[in-house]
Amino acid sequence: xxxxxxxxxxxxxxxxxxxxxxxxxxxxxxxxxxxxxxxxxxxxxxxxxxxxxxxxxxxxxxxxxxxxxxxxxxxxxxxxxxxxxxxxxxxxxxxxxxxxxxxxxxxxxxxxxxxxxxxxxxxxxxxxxxxxxxxxxxxxxxxxxxxxxxxxxxxxxxxxxxxxxxxxxxxxxxxxxxxxxxxxxxxxxxxxxxxxxxxxxxxxxxxxxxxxxxxxxxxxxxxxxxxxxxxxxxxxxxxxxxxxxxxxxxxxxxxxxxxxxxxxxxxxxxxxxxxxxxxxxxxxxxxxxxxxxxxxxxxxxxxxxxxxxxxxxxxxxxxxxxxxxxxxxxxxxxxxxxxxxxxxxxxxxxxxxxxxxxxxxxxxxxxxxxxxxxxxxxxxxxxxxxxxxxxxxxxxxxxxxxxxxxxxxxxxxxxxxxxxxxxxxxxxxxxxxxxxxxxxxxxxxxxxxxxxxxxxxxxxxxxxxxxxxxxxxxxxxxxxxxxxxxxxxxxxxxxxxxxxxxxxxxxxxxxxxxxxxxxxxxxxxxxxxxxxxxxxxxxxxxxxxxxxxxxxxxxxxxxxxxxxxxxxxxxxxxxxxxxxxxxxxxxxxxxxxxxxxxxxxxxxxxxxxxxxxxxxxxxxxxxxxxxxxxxxxxxxxxxxxxxxxxxxxxxxxxxxxxxxxxxxxxxxxxxxxxxxxxxxxxxxxxxxxxxxxxxxxxxxxxxxxxxxxxxxxxxxxxxxxxxxxxxxxxxxxxxxxxxxxxxxxxxxxxxxxxxxxxxxxxxxxxxxxxxxxxxxxxxxxxxxxxxxxxxxxxxxxxxxxxxxxxxxxxxxxxxxxxxxxxxxxxxxxxxxxx
Length: 834
Known about the structure:
Helices cover 33% and strands 15% of the residues. With 834 residues, the chain is α/β, with parallel strands linked by helices. The protein has a nine-stranded mixed beta sheet with strand order 3-2-11-10-12-13-14-15-16, sandwiched between helices. Strands 1-17-18-20-21 form a five-stranded antiparallel beta sheet. InterPro entries: AMP-bd_C, AMP-bd_C_sf, AMP-binding_CS, AMP-dep_synth/lig_dom, ANL_N_sf.
């Protein structure tokens, strides 16, 4: 059943904005009450000055521009105390205001002006270059570009709004009659997740309703004449007036309630704090980035912020940790509210007295509204269950301009607006917003709210700001959470820091919420003027990173896979590309993200659970089957080694385990030797490595090895032909080294027999007799216990012995492998047959 507001219903008159503000007989404050004050210059407007200037401007529009009802005025300017005058002057003349972000480019501004059908543009001198080009592009004449602010145009090409007056000098111009329910007051453009911004059509009735709703929500805690000096509450206004949050909560609400608004043209944390101290600010509407700065920026401590009684945060959820940290630092409570451009904007706010008891919620629903949470199937969910918030009330917008399909998708036939925000309601009537429907990360059937992870990460001592997005991994066919992080000064932006952050978060969240997409460091998090994270910008960045990564993955994936095995790449002397098809042949995933995760998880002698499934084991088995023809028993040993169950402790570094390690190293060395021997025979135009099954064996390997050594003398050292790399002339810088004995760079990995649970290393039956892994004495039914196997018995070991002798002649007879001595003890003595 839909929830009704806990507030008593209020009477909302059917009047337009002008009538509510300037013809309201119940206005409690006097005409000379200062309403707007410029924080930098001190210039101000009283109530009566605003009204008089607005009427003059409205008459001027009708006289000079022949302004008609429904004409649209583009407002392209940063915050100014002149904004209220030109806004309500345009309304007086029957016009519609379409505020635009002053940070827009020519293309962006031109799109909005054209889509809105603007007849004129109001801007400031510094923004004329963009405004003029955009206006010219869509056919707005230059004389219809006017200025506000303190700076005039010396060339007199562009008039100041104060010079747009009733030239006729008569009283024949009257205020245009407005239909509050149907006539638009604002055409506010809401930034979409994709495509161009959408024009949100807000009627006069929408804005009037929300002013009255918000006043009820503040509960009389803000006054026009209270306080220590009887001057009423002092509000600091830095929220952009081109956004509905600042436009209604600051510009309109202060005029309606008689609060004094000190206007900042743009936000700066030091100026913000200085203005609070200078003007004894008592209340501020803020956004999460500002709250974050108040909790962490060192400049805050320089100023006296004790006059602040309360702050109200909107645009995104705040965590209890952040609210508490700010309160502990500056002793100012922070309550939260909620709203959207489509809701005029405020729908919910926390009561002042509940700011700390319901931290994390956006408070109670304001009067005269109805809400419900809906499942993805559009079925209403019960109290306490998560769903998409749908809301209905007199403040809900009329629709999207020139976008009937968008309107149909957003508004239901019975008047509910589908907010696109996910949350729930508790039994006490508090509403919680956890994330956007379109921003939820879908990880393998789980939903991961970015805001939840961001809230946790912000409590990390090294993190200054953060945004989490989902990146799609086609190999896993799912999204992975990735964090973009701006660290504090002095914190290193390296892999170690990234791993520490990931490990820290991993200990605090469920398995599906881990940062499987990794961590990326950035200088700052992109945000909109209202403080919302611009996730679409980060998604574009992630896509660009992914495109660039494709050229790197083929070179790094095999190296990372090799590191996962614990092999020291520098001792191999082979191009990285050799190992990639080896594992791909078995269907084993070697994408950068997966391999990196595998490598990290094995650092502490434990392997991630990715190989515990039979599917993964079979993939390993297929890879090994094609890698080299080995007896089933030998291949099973490899599979068990690679797919072992994680254990609490690594295997004992005993002789038996050293033997297993050495066998694997020697086997890979032999395979690499054979591969090098055949590499020069691959066609220069080859696009792939030779299939693993074509690895040469026996006497053929010896012949190819000899041919390889002869050929290597005639190949340019800077243009070596490599399998799968095309023409040698296109591959500078690849030099072929003689292979050294492979070395493992970490302790032995624990593994166990999947059927018996018995440790493979501790079970002699798992060391196959005369297997392809074997290069040491081994017992079998066909050989006496004390028999030894000669290296001369197989062609491959002969090649290996000759290569080892070459290495010893270069490095010294005791340089068999330094890493082996460190981890496995001294190398075994050479063996000969009886």
